[in-house]
From TrEMBL:
Its cofactor is FAD. Keywords: FAD, Flavoprotein. It comes from Acidisoma cellulosilyticum. It holds the Pfam family GMC_oxred_N. Belongs to the GMC oxidoreductase family. Residues 79-102, 257-271 form the Glucose-methanol-choline oxidoreductase N-terminal domain. InterPro entries: FAD/NAD-bd_sf, GMC_OxRdtase, GMC_OxRdtase_N, GMC_OxRtase_C. PROSITE patterns: GMC_OXRED_1, GMC_OXRED_2. GO terms for molecular function: flavin adenine dinucleotide binding; oxidoreductase activity, acting on CH-OH group of donors. The lineage of its organism: Bacteria, Pseudomonadati, Pseudomonadota, Alphaproteobacteria, Acetobacterales. This is GMC family oxidoreductase N-terminal domain-containing protein. FAD binds at T12, S13, V81, W446, H447.
Length: 508
C-alpha cells in the first residue's frame, strides 16, 4: 500500500512529525520504527532509565577506539523503541539557549528558527507547563506535559545552595530566563506525569494510533530510500524476514537519529561521491557533509563519598547547574547533574577503590572537537563506523580542566557538608594528571548531533525547511540537523525540529 507521508523513525522528532501530519488529516501516514513496543516498566518508571542501557531498547553503538582516549571505545546508547530517546533518557526537559536557536537561524538563513520564533512554538504548541504561570516563557495546553522536579530532596536543595555560593545564580526553573544568560542553577523540568514517564511518542502519537490515516510499524528496519532521478519516492523496508518497497506520494521524513540518519543517506547514495563509489554505491546526490560534524556533549563522572546522614534520592537528577569556562562565551559550555551512586567510565570504576555510599556529578561539556559517521561497507547489515572525535581539539582539555574546578567548588561547598565526606576518587592537581583522568573517563551524554547539519554551504546537508539539498520529497527531522549541540539535553530541541518539519510540510 502507498502512503502520502512516510516517517522513518518513531523517536522524539519522528513522533512529532507523524502525530502532527496524522492529526491534520491531509493524507495517509506511515510511521516505521526499528524497535518495538514502549510498554515496559523500564520505560514507564523514569527512575529505571539506567537499566535500559545495553538492552534491546538500545541500539548499542560503539565508537572506534581512539588514541585520544587511551585506546578506548565509547558505548553510544540510543533509543531503539517507540519514543526513541524520550523513552529511555533521564526525562529532563531542556529547551536550548537563546544563542542555540539564533545560531541555528543564522546557519539556515531562516528567521523561522530564531530564538523568539522557537519560544513562540514552545508557548503555543509544545508545552503544557505545570508550574507557576509564566506567560513570557512557558506555554499551557500544548502536547507535552512538563513539570518541575517534584518534592526535591534536602540534598538537592543543599547542592543548589552550594552552586549559588560558587557564583551560579538560582533561577525559578531550568528554562526561560536562565537560557538567556551565561549560567545558573535550578531544579530540572521533566516529562513525568503522576510519577510515570510520558514519552514524546505517548504525547503525540499514542492518542492517534486508532486513526484510519495512521499506521505504525514496529520491528521494521529501513534499508534505504528509493529515488526516481532526484526525487525520493519510497523506502525499502525489512520486516519479519521480508524485504518490501513502500511508495510515498508526497514526502519522506528521515528521523533515524544522528547515527542512523547519515548511515541511511549514505547507503541510499547521498554523500561524498568518492567514498560512495569506492564502496560500489551509485551516487544519487553529492553531499560530502553527510556524516561529518558528529559531536556530542562529552561527559565525565566525578564521584563523592556520602555521609551516613545522606538519605537516598532519586537516580535521575533533580537539579541542573550551568556555567561557562571562558568569559568570551555568550552561553554556558559546561553543566552538571547530580546522580545517586558511582557514575563513571568502566575504566575509572575498575581502577578506583570506592566507598560504599557515593553520589556523582555527571559533568557535560560542549566540545570544539568533531568526529564523523561513515560506512565500513555497502552491506546494510555491516556495523556503521563512528569516529567520536573526542579531544581532537586540544582546547577541549583546557575547558574540561576549568569545568572540573567549578564542579569541585560546588561539591566542596559548605551547604553540602552534612551530605558529603569528600572526593571519592583521586585526580592529580596537575595538568598532566587531569588530562590523563579525562582520557580515561570521558563518556557520552547521549546527545549526538550534527551529522546532517542545516545550512547553505557545502558543510551542510539540509536547508532551513529541512529539505535535503538537491533532493525533492525528502526532509530530515532529528538531532542530526543541529549545527551545534544545544545547551543542555537535546530532547526538547528535537521536539521543536519535529514541529517545524511538520509545519513546513503542511504549509507548502
Amino acid at each position: 500500500m502507498d502512503y502520502d507521508y512516510i516517517v522513518c523513525g518513531a523517536g522524539t522528532s519522528g513522533s512529532v512529525v507523524a502525530g502532527r501530519l496524522a492529526a491534520s488529516h491531509t493524507g495517509r501516514v506511515l510511521l516505521i520504527e526499528a524497535g518495538g513496543s514502549d510498554q515496559s516498566p523500564l520505560i514507564s518508571d523514569p527512575n529505571a532509565w539506567p537499566m535500559t542501557l545495553g538492552t534491546s531498547l538500545d541500539w548499542g553503538f560503539m565508537t572506534d577506539a581512539s588514541s585520544d582516549l587511551n585506546g578506548r571505545s565509547i558505548p553510544y546508547s540510543m533509543g531503539k523503541v517507540l519514543g526513541g530517546g524520550s523513552s529511555i533518557n533521564v526525562s529532563t526537559w531542556s529547551r536550548g539557549h537563546r544563542s542555540d536557536w539564533d545560531g541555528f537561524s543564522a546557519a539556515a538563513q531562516d528567521k523561522r528558527w530564531s530564538y523568539e520564533a522557537v519560544l513562540e512554538l514552545y508557548r503555543t504548541k509544545i508545552e503544557d507547563w505545570q508550574g507557576q504561570p509564566d506567560p513570557r516563557y512557558r506555554g499551557v495546553g500544548g502536547a507535552v506535559h512538563v513539570q518541575q522536579a517534584p518534592s526535591p530532596s534536602a540534598f538537592t536543595e543543599s547542592l543548589l545552595s552550594s552552586a549559588s555560593d560558587a557564583g551560579l545564580a538560582r533561577y525559578p526553573n531550568a528554562n526561560g530566563a536562565m537560557m538567556e544568560g551565561t549560567g545558573g542553577a535550578a531544579l530540572v523540568d521533566e516529562i513525568v506525569q503522576d510519577g510515570k514517564r510520558k514519552s514524546i511518542f505517548q504525547s503525540y502519537v499514542a492518542p492517534l494510533v486508532s486513526s484510519d490515516n495512521l499506521r505504525v510499524l514496529t520491528d521494521t528496519k529501513l534499508l534505504k530510500i528509493l529515488f526516481e532521478k532526484n526525487r525520493a519516492v519510497g523506502v525499502l523496508l525489512e520486516s519479519n524476514g521480508q524485504v518490501i518497497a513502500v511508495k510515498a506520494r508526497r514526502e519522506i521524513v528521515l528521523s533515524a537519529g544522528a547515527i542512523n540518519t547519515p548511515r541511511i543517506l549514505l547507503q541510499s547514495g547521498i554523500g561524498d561521491p568518492q567514498a560512495l563509489r569506492k564502496l560500489g554505491i551509485d551516487v544519487v546526490q553529492a553531499l560530502p557533509a553527510v556524516g561529518e560534524n558528529l559531536h556530542d556533549h562529552v561527559a565525565f563522572g566525578f564521584i563523592w563519598e556520602k555521609t551516613q546522614e545522606a538519605m537516598p534520592f532519586v537516580p535521575r537528577s533533580e537539579s541542573a547547574c550551568f556555567w561557562r569556562t571562558d568569559a568570551n562565551l555568550d552561553a554556558p559550555n559546561m553543566y552538571t547533574y547530580a546522580i545517586q551512586g558511582a557514575f563513571a567510565s568502566p575504566e575509572i570504576l575498575k581502577t578506583t577503590n570506592l566507598p560504599e555510599n557515593t553520589w556523582s556529578m555527571f559533568v557535560g561539556m560542549r566540545p570544539r572537537s568533531r568526529g564523523r559517521v561513515y560506512l565500513r561497507a555497502a552491506d546494510e547489515s555491516a556495523p556503521v563506523g563512528i569516529d567520536s572525535g573526542y579531544l581532537r581539539d586540544p582546547k577541549d582539555l583546557d575547558d574540561l580542566r576549568s569545568g572540573l574546578e567549578i564542579a569541585r567548588q560546588i561539591g566542596h561547598g559548605s551547604a553540602l557538608k552534612r551530605f558529603t565526606v569528600g572526593e571519592a576518587m583521586t585526580v592529580e592537581n596537575t595538568r598532566a594528571g587531569q588530562d590523563q583522568f579525562f582520557r580515561d573517563s570521558l563518556v557520552t551524554f547521549w546527545h549526538q548531533c550534527g551529522t546532517a547539519a542545516v545550512g547553505t554551504d557545502e558543510a551542510s546537508v539540509v536547508d532551513g525547511s529541512l529539505r535535503v539539498h538537491g533532493i525533492e520529497g525528502l526532509r530530515i527531522a532529528d538531532a542530526s540537523v543541529l549545527p551545534q549541540v544545544t545547551v543542555g539535553n537535546t530532547m526538547a530541541p528535537c521536539v521543536v525540529i519535529g514541529e517545524q518539519a511538520a509545519g513546513f510540510i503542511l504549509s507548502e
